[in-house]
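BACKBONE STRUCTURE TOKENS:
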Amino acid sequence: MEKQSNSLKPKIAYGLFDWASSPVPTLHATFVFAVYYVSSVSPDTGSAEWAWMNSLAALTIAIISPIIGASADRNANRKTWLGLMMAVGIVATSLLWWVEPNTSWIWYALIISFVSIVAMESLFTFYNALLPSIVSNDKIGSVSGFSWAAGYFGAIFCLVLVLAIFILPEQAPFGLQKEQAEQIRITMPFSALWFLLFGLPLFFWISEPRVKNQQESILSTIKKGIHTAKSIPGMVRFLIARMLYADALVVVYAFGGIYATNVFGFTQDEVIGFAIAINLTAGIGAAFMGRLEDRIGGFKTIRFSLVCLICLSLIVLIAPSKVFFWVSALSMGIFIGPLQSASRTVVARIVPPEQMARIFGLYMISGKATSFLGPLLYGILFSIFDTDRAGMAIAVVFLVIGYLLLGREMPSE
């Protein structure tokens, strides 16, 4: 497969897509709409409902990812699938504007949020599969780290804009009514428009590899992907370990803002400030560790990041004050970015190009097959103990198990 490594445009487009897409889950699923939902739409049982919805979305992603990934490999139409999922995510996110701050909108908010999350997560099956086509293996860590960093900084920039334009002004602009929380609700179509504008260059600047397997059925393509994973030493073990530590990150992303609000009494403005800060540390971590990863390898980067995350997440869990929470949570951000970036590059370095999307479909399974358990257990523990600390403890458990399953080395890398 011919790389586009001599051109700067594909690398910029790849990073721009992360810059474009990251504000949607950041504003929707973690720090703005999620907090709005549990505080204003469903203040009594919102945490549990948001957990159930995230569980169902994760289960759905796990089911469809290998199927659509195999279809993309079979017909060499990764960009077509990427565009379709992007369109669904943009429309669904925009529709959240209509969610008013009362309980009559609970089902609408949950259903549309479910569609948005499934689309926004599923598109990464195809986005990740494009990475090896634009850069050589010896530079793949740097480009992956750059794109992750671009995503974090894109989320920061978008958060700053919505804070300055819509949320902080005493008088909301454009006739928005604060009593109906319209200054919060407008962030959903705003983030969708952001995604549309900055995501388009990928479709013009990145050429899809011309690799087709049209003679095979989708089921056959999936089976071949599983066979390929089994044939690569350490790959199955790695995917299983990733399944667990990815579950931990699902919990952190889905409930980070809710945890800060319910445990430490963060206001909406404080949650957004916290989001900006943690995305900044995550972006710095992803950019710096991407270069280090090219030197020491993705697997060692993952192990180091997991050790640091386990220690810091324990501090977050028992933090007695906002100060402890701020310091430990922001420090976690430094290692979240490298963990995600290195996980992607481990796969991208060693998988045959003609099976890239189907293996990344399995990769998505390893990130989603059991990720419904995290929100599910969070909801159960919250319901039993009536505290978000109990729910967040499941993230620490998943990080530890993931690290133990990972082993000491990746023979194939």
Summary: The radius of gyration is 20 Å. The mean pLDDT is 84. The chain has 19 helices and no strands.
